[in-house]
Each structure stands twice: as C-alpha cells, then as structure tokens.
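Reopening this ticket.

The earlier resolution said the output was attached, but the attachment link was broken on my side. Pasting everything inline this time so it's all in one place.
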Amino acid sequence: MPLAWERLYPLPFDRILKEDPKKLGIQKEKRGDGRIVYIYNFLVFMPKYDRNENEPKKRDEGREILVYFLWEPGNLEVPYRIQLGDLN
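Inline output:
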C-alpha cells in the first residue's frame, strides 16, 4: 500500500493504525464488465502539515482515515489504486 499511496498522494500518511478495521478480510468483487478487483481496508493516521520553506513539516496532530486498497490483476498499466473513505 505505501507504494500506491506515494504514486497518488503528495503527502505521506504517518502510520497504519489498524489493518482490516471493518473485519471484512480480502474481498473479491466481480465488476459489471467482468473485471475482478480485490479490496482490503486499512485505518491510517494522516498528520497535519505545516510549510517550512516549501518543505512539508509534519505536526503531531492529525486524523484517522479509512483507506481502501484495490488491486485489479487484469489491469497491466495500473493494477492498484487507493480510495479514501467508504466505497461507492
């Protein structure tokens, strides 16, 4: 998940607080067009940041964010993505 995060979001999360907080395990979903997607959830701590001469400086305060990691093995270009909050 950290590699997917770095590719999609400019600021890093601080740490994974809990793996599978929804207690769903790894879900396998078949989409309408036949694609298979595997889904796993995490709870991460995202700190607030200050700017320090164009460099982000992390603060101790922040918030917990529910994150879904989606892996689509049939997609050869970008097989994984991240969705913040609940799934649509």
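Reporter confirms the inline version is readable. The CA atoms of residues 11 and 54 lie 13 Å apart. Residues 2-63+74-84 form one domain.
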